[in-house]
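Subject: design request, 340 residues
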């Protein structure tokens, strides 16, 4: 029987043979003491690619975001973010458990709020005596089908936040996809953000890890929060080795995933009983709605699984399918046959 076509997420990617070999021969030390040479090399490369002074290797994107938010705010105060952003939606309980942060959540239909909405929120917060110290952006926006913000849009939002005395943290879990979709250097997207978290374990295919980047002083403080949250690692060079391969070899091929996602989305738009907004399909995330009661989407997910195609019903009839390096064009066509 053929291997399943797994479209549940790009987090299911498996490491390449080059990554496995790099992990096997990796030089290691104790990362807590700062003497793991492979971790050091990964951090230096990530900082250079992102155009920041320094970077920190963390086990997950959630931890990277938490370290960023806690470092910027000291674990208290007000943070502006979009309502269904990952920080607000999936990571909410992290901040409830470990911080006294309060969130101003902007409700934007496409997930990406503009300068007017941010200006209104920051002005209203100041008027109400709320001291906003941080603005969180997300690029690409996960729950809005992976929509992207351009370098100019990012620059405008960062400038506005800074004018109001707030720092900017970018949840760039898939910022590599945003750069690939726009055909720009990732440095252009993150240039004006004070910090950025970027995943190695999604589209880039590394088995574990994310990078948090910012100034040297910021990263020194973030290192303490990483350890406080249980992210202290020892011979982490075994994992960092795969991250090095990911950064050096996997970014340029992301356009293939985007083309496969577009193929999938355009074909789904022709399937009776499915509704999809093609204008939102800009990267590798395809979100669509199955008409009728949510049980219809449950049935679709179950029947596809029987056919060896894995998709994810997120609730209320909304289904997500994510393309990645382990799903070829042939795999997408197989998934379409199953869904039809």
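Subject: RE: design request

Done. Sequence follows.
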């Amino acid at each position: 029987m053929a291997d399943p076509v797994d479209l549940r997420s790009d987090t299911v990617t498996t490491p390449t043979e080059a990554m496995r070999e790099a992990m096997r021969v990796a030089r290691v030390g104790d990362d807590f003491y700062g003497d793991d040479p492979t971790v050091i090399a990964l951090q230096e490369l990530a900082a250079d690619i992102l155009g920041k002074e320094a970077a920190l290797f963390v086990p997950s994107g959630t931890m990277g975001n938490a370290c960023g938010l806690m470092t910027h705010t000291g674990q208290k105060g007000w943070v502006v973010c979009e309502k269904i952003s990952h920080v607000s939606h999936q990571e909410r309980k992290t901040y409830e458990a470990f911080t006294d942060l309060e969130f101003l959540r902007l409700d934007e239909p496409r997930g990406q709020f503009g300068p007017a909405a941010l200006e209104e929120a920051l002005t209203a917060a100041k008027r109400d005596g709320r001291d906003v110290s941080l603005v969180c952006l997300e690029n690409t926006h996960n729950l809005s089908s992976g929509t992207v913000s351009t370098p100019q849009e990012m620059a405008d939002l960062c400038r506005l936040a800074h004018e109001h005395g707030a720092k900017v943290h970018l949840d760039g879990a898939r910022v590599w996809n945003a750069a690939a979709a726009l055909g720009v250097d990732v440095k252009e997207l993150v240039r004006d953000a004070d910090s950025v978290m970027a995943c190695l374990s999604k589209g880039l295919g590394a088995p574990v890890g994310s990078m948090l980047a910012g100034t040297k002083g910021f990263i020194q403080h973030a290192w303490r929060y990483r350890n406080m949250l249980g992210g202290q690692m020892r011979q982490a060079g075994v994992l960092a080795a795969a991250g090095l391969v990911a950064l050096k070899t996997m970014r340029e091929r992301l356009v293939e995933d985007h083309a496969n996602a577009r193929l999938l989305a355009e074909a789904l738009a022709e399937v009776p009983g499915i509704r999809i907004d093609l204008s939102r399909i800009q990267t590798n995330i395809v979100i669509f709605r199955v008409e009728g009661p949510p049980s219809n989407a449950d049935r679709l997910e179950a029947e596809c699984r029987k056919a060896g195609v894995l998709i994810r019903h997120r609730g209320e009839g909304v289904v997500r399918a994510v393309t990645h390096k382990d799903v070829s064009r042939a795999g997408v066509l197989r998934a379409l046959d199953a869904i039809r």
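The mean pLDDT is 96.
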